[in-house]
């Protein structure tokens, strides 16, 4: 379309960029101002061109033009496109992720005027960026958050170092939307400690109040109880008990914000007594500020649960009436006492009477309990995930150990098999030798009884040498043959002992005793024959 192409040419009129520099500068300053005004008007009408083209065709038709306008060398052009940035985000809808780099670039712009132009609608812009579209909210958040957090912190640092304290105040107020955009851990580590530093070191009262208000919101939506207790402890110790009266006054301002954002029970649990302690502050301005807060303190009490806190309040008021020397503080105390007398305290027994008044407080308290429950659920979820991961790793290690032990075990089984094979072979060879020696000895003693000796056991063949069957032989041959038989018996007993091993020591002893007895019998027979 010629109209769209003509608009693109107008957005680049007066620019001839090569390698990021303006090579062909227009010598006529009036003409250059006109070109800058044309580009500024194009930036002003850019949302209308998005409507004309449509969100689906934005990336093809207008993204390059939008990029040029966001990086225009003239500050008024960038300022104008920053003013309409939120409107462009609304028109793009689910395609808003296409321009998140341009948002980061404008937040990091060298001109603080451009950053200030973004601040008016920064909350809405960030919410659209991180939740644009029904199905792409998580993807958008994962894409933009890693670049967004450093851009916001650098923008705050640059604004803080400048003299534009109103821009700084505005930016700190806009930071209150961060709990809906990034996680509480990111807020705790990247933004919360910075708020403490601003409260303690900045000299501009509106900036300090904006930082304390944002800090209370961060505390309100923090999901970890340990971090909440740490923040509360820092508030009490560094502000409420600080050496500077200025810090103690900022503590009282912070307590007012806590009463606004938190439930009555939360304030009474963590901050009530710390505020009452400041009624004895050495600085009159601090005591005066506390006296003005006394009606608010009384409104946070619920009887009969907070009866001891009410007694502490009445005791502090009596001390102020009796011991206060500053006339201005004393006048505030007298006026406050009249107001305290007219006040009614909510009681648990008559809660229905104050239902409409305490409905908001009940909602806050319910949300606080919900945060605690969510934290407990997250802890249980993390513990279950850690347990399952440990079980999986244990199972994996056990499988690896099984597979690893199976490989080395297969090798020794083969080796043991071969050794057992060799042992069985040696045993069989020894048995065959034993049988041969036994058969040889039986044949040498008497050939007729060889068949009988083959059918008998080894022990019987050994014992049968000294029986009466051997009597009809000649003495000389008997001596030779009995010697060979005894040698064969000793050889066979040695082989049987070696083949049986250490586990058969009892059998070896019985066999040896039997051999000794057989030898004695054979000697007796010889003597009788002779």
Automatic annotation (TrEMBL):
* MF terms in GO: protein phosphatase regulator activity
Chain intervals with Polar residues compositional bias: 413-426, 435-444, 501-515
- Biased composition regions of type Basic residues, renumbered to the chain: 521-530
Query: Which residues lie in Low complexity bias regions?
Result: 484-499
Q: Which residues form the signal peptide?
A: none
Coiled-coil spans are none
Q: Which InterPro entries does its entry note?
A: ARM-like, ARM-type_fold, PPP4R4
> What does the entry list under GO cellular component?
cytosol; protein serine/threonine phosphatase complex
Chain positions covered by the region annotation Disordered: 377-462, 484-530
Positions with biased composition (Basic and acidic residues): 377-402
- Note the Gene3D superfamilies from the entry: Leucine-rich Repeat Variant (1.25.10.10)
Sorted alphabetically, which PANTHER family does this protein's record hold? Answer: PROTEIN PHOSPHATASE 4 REGULATORY SUBUNIT 4 PPP4R4, SERINE_THREONINE-PROTEIN PHOSPHATASE 4 REGULATORY SUBUNIT 4
Instruction: Identify this protein by name.
Output: Serine/threonine-protein phosphatase 4 regulatory subunit 4
């Amino acid at each position: 379309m010629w109209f769209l192409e003509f608009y693109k040419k107008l957005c680049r009129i007066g620019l001839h960029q090569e390698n990021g520099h303006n090579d062909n500068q227009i010598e006529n300053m009036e003409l250059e101002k006109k070109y800058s005004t044309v580009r500024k008007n194009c930036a002003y009408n850019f949302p209308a061109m998005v409507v004309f083209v449509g969100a689906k065709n934005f990336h093809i038709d207008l993204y390059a033009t939008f990029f040029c306008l966001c990086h225009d060398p003239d500050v008024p052009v960038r300022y104008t496109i920053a003013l309409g940035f939120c409107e462009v985000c609304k028109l793009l809808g689910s395609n808003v992720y296409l321009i998140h780099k341009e948002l980061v670039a404008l937040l990091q712009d060298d001109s603080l005027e451009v950053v200030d132009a973004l601040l008016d609608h920064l909350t809405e812009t960030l919410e659209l960026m991180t939740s644009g579209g029904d199905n792409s909210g998580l993807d958008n958040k994962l894409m933009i958050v890693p670049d967004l957090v450093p851009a916001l912190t650098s923008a705050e640092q640059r604004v803080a170092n400048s003299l534009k304290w109103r821009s700084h105040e505005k930016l700190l107020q806009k930071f209150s939307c961060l709990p809906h955009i990034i996680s509480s851990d990111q807020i705790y580590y990247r933004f919360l400690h910075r708020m403490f530093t601003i409260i303690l070191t900045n000299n501009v009262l509106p900036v300090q109040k904006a930082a304390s208000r944002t800090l209370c919101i961060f505390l309100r939506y923090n999901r970890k109880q340990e971090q909440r207790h740490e923040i509360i402890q820092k508030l009490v110790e560094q502000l409420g008990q600080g050496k500077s009266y200025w810090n103690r006054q900022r503590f009282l301002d912070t307590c007012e914000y806590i009463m606004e954002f938190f439930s009555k029970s939360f304030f009474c649990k963590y901050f009530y007594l710390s505020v009452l302690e400041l009624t004895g502050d050495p600085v009159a301005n601090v005591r005066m500020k506390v006296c003005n807060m006394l009606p608010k303190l009384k409104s946070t009490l619920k009887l009969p649960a907070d009866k001891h806190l009410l007694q502490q309040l009445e005791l502090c008021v009596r001390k102020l009436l009796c011991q206060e020397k500053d006339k201005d503080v004393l006048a505030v105390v007298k006026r406050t006492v009249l107001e305290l007398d007219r006040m009614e305290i909510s009681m648990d027994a008559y809660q229905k009477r104050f239902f409409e008044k305490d409905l908001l407080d009940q909602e806050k308290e319910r949300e606080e309990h919900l945060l605690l429950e969510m934290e407990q659920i997250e802890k249980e979820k993390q513990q279950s995930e850690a347990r399952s991961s440990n079980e999986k790793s244990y199972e994996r290690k056990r499988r690896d150990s099984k597979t690893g032990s199976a490989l080395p075990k297969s090798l020794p089984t083969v080796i043991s098999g071969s050794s057992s094979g060799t042992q069985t072979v040696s045993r069989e060879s020894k048995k065959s030798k034993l049988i041969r020696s036994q058969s040889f000895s039986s044949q040498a003693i008497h050939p007729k009884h060889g068949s009988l000796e083959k059918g008998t056991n080894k022990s019987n063949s050994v014992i049968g040498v000294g029986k009466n069957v051997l009597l009809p032989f000649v003495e000389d041959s008997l001596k030779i043959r009995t010697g060979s038989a005894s040698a064969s018996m000793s050889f066979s007993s040695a082989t049987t002992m070696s083949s049986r091993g250490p586990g058969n020591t009892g059998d070896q002893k019985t066999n040896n005793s039997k051999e000794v007895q057989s030898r004695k019998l054979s000697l007796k027979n010889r003597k009788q024959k002779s």
